[in-house]
Amino acid sequence: MEIDLVENKRKFKTLIFGNALTIFIQIFYMLRFNYTHHSSETNVVLFTLITLGALSFVFSFKGKYLVATLLILIPGSINLVLIIYQAGGINAPAPFWLFLLPLFYGVFFDMKGSIVGTFVSFIALFFFLVVDKYGLYYYQVEIADYKFDKIMNLYLFGTLLSGYLITYTKTYGQASVSLREANLRVDTLLRVVLHDLANQLTAINHRLKKLKRDDPYFVKLKKSSERSIEIIQSVRLLQKLDKPSFSKSVEVFPLKDLVASLHDEHELSLEEKSITLNIENELDEHKTIKTNFTVLKTQILGNVISNAIKFSYPDGVINFSIRMIESDIQFSIRDFGIGIPQEIQNNLFRLDATTSRKGTDGEFGTGYGMPIMKHFVNLLEGHVLVESSEEENLNGTLFTINLPHKI
Question: Which pLDDT belongs to residue 311?
Answer without folding.
Answer: 92
